[in-house]
Design a protein that fits this description.
globular, alpha/beta, Rossmann fold
């Protein structure tokens, strides 16, 4: 966790302001993951941090979600010596494209970037289960949920917890009349 926070501080990843998150919630904190992911040297360090925490899992496949999960699944897969694939949204649904496949009984590690509600992870779990594969664990760069997400039916290993208060847009004290929180990096959800 300290290594992750050091990297986030070094890259000015934590922003303060008025933000609408991918989950649709509003927050005064935004974690701009691409300040971390844009630098190959730091991305490689992150891959090593994931491996250090998860080296006992032995995945056959590392699965992420576009866009941040493309880079993360690749760098984590490299550490494990396996393949990294990603799902992407088509008309709002998370699916595998590009001839990616998950074979029955494959051991799959799900990698996510920043987690607030866990909605994207639930969609990735559904893909793994529909392929009759085995989800051996879920990880992320940062769990920013208020109380930590423990509601997955598979082990969850966030590299770092950074609790941040969020609100539904209709209840958001940050949103001003006719001036709602600004969206950042939304993925078509």
């Amino acid at each position: 966790m300290n290594e992750m926070m050091s990297l986030m501080r070094e890259t000015n990843t934590i922003l303060n302001g008025r933000f609408k998150l991918t989950s649709g919630k509003c927050s005064e904190v935004y974690i701009e993951k691409f300040r971390l992911l844009e630098n190959p040297k730091i991305l490689n360090q992150i891959g090593k941090l994931f491996y250090k925490e998860l080296n006992t899992l032995s995945p056959d496949i590392v699965l992420g979600a576009a866009v941040g999960g493309i880079l993360l699944s690749s760098v984590v897969a490299k550490q494990f010596g396996t393949i990294g694939i990603f799902a992407e949204r088509v008309k709002g649904d998370m699916i595998l494209k590009r001839d990616f496949n998950i074979k029955k009984n494959s051991r799959v590690l799900i990698v996510e970037d920043i987690v607030t509600t866990g909605g994207s992870i639930d969609e990735l779990i559904k893909i793994v289960e529909e392929k009759n594969a085995i989800c051996i664990g879920i990880t992320c760069l940062v769990d920013r949920s208020k109380n930590g997400l423990e509601n997955f039916k598979y082990p969850f290993f966030p590299l770092m917890k950074y609790p941040s208060k969020t609100w539904e847009q209709k209840d958001c004290p940050l949103c001003e009349q006719d001036n709602p929180c600004s969206p950042r990096g939304r993925t078509g959800k």
